[in-house]
Amino acid sequence: MSIYSHNCQVTLPAGKAIHKVTWFLDSYALPNETVYLDNLEITLNEGSHQRNAQVDLFWQGRDFSELSEAQVDTFFSDTPTLTHDNGTTSLRLSQASSGRYTTRFHLEAPEFSHTYPEYLMYQASITNPSSQPVSAQLYGSASYQKQFRDADHSAAFAPSYYIAPNSTAVVPIIVDLGQDGLTTDIASTELRIEADGAVLLNGLTLHSGTSLSDGLVTIATSGFETDSGGFTTSSPQDVTLISQAQQVISGEQSLGFDMAPWRQAGFTHYFGWANQYYADKVYTQLAVQLQDAQKDTPVRVCTDVYYMGGGKDSYCKERVLGVGSFAMYDVYPVDSERRLYRILVRVRAYGNASIKGEMDNFVLGYWPAIPAQ
Questions:
Q1: Are residues 198 and 231 in the same domain?
Q2: Which domain of life is it from (predicted)?
Q3: Of the candidates 278, 301, 273, the residue with the CA atom closest to the CA atom of residue 289
Q4: For the chain, counts of helices (H) and of strands (E)
Q5: Residue 134 confidence (pLDDT)
Q6: How confident is the model at residue 179 (pLDDT cuts 50, 70, 90)?
Q7: Single residue among 144, 174, 209 that ends a domain in this structure
Q8: Would residue 257 count as lying in a domain?
Q9: What confidence tens digit (pLDDT) does each residue in 350-359 have?
Q10: Chain CA centroid to CA 357, Å
Q11: In this structure, is residue 156 part of a structural domain?
Q12: Residues 57, 61, 67, 73: is their CA dihedral positive or negative?
């Protein structure tokens, strides 16, 4: 006979009506064994814990002005320099022997409030102070414990993020911990940043979240290892899609494409008429690599959110490339008062020239919302 006691907690989103509270128990008893449940208590406390269902794990990163030199040494490696310029406190990345500018953020045993966290999300604010563009690479990872299993590890990679001259980019990276509801402990997490030019790290936020409260709900995720990941085209005579093991972005295969001018391929998710889905944000992640394209060829990636009864919001990112690559990790606002009908993500040859290349690391998701009553 054994006795197991568990005290769990979850943070509910601020400013939203609570529709229902559900408590569940997964039992792994052997045949003919009996499980007794006792001393169950559910308490709702207002304003006594975190303010949002995305729990902040590294509050010092929001404003580096309160970060001491000792904390820089504790959390960051590769000796970044704490700088103060025009009222803004930043970390200046140091140049390694390879010539690249690097740092590594590491956090041991972060405290989290979700009973079973499903993802960690980094958002790094990076400034390029020079007159030349900079390409940055980010690698996020986490080590964690699964209930009834050994330790596990997950990673996410932003292979090439373009930062324009004299500008700031906010780069998000989501590390997936799995939606099996069995993640019980986060042992450590880290973020590595590399750039081919001098950059400043202005802020770094780290959240844990779960779709059981108000976290990211994943619609689709694909590395295109076995198929097209749901991407299709309405112009098969002008667009070719094929899984390929040559010129791979990551993993064993990427989704190769060959597009005539102004043609596109896309992924569509229908929510359906019978279901009522609302959201306040959507998330699109995709890496694109061009192997055959004229110089200054525009490539456009759009996320179209369609609402029930008509109307839509469209968000497009355009890159002007020849042969090259880019990755996008973008969060877009959605009208939380309107029911969702479908979401379309499309890659388009946005010009008078054909393009040929690959795409990889596709993720589409949304943050649920409860409309005002």
A1: no
A2: Bacteria
A3: 301
A4: 1, 22
A5: 92
A6: low
A7: 209
A8: yes
A9: 888 888 888 8
A10: 23
A11: yes
A12: positive
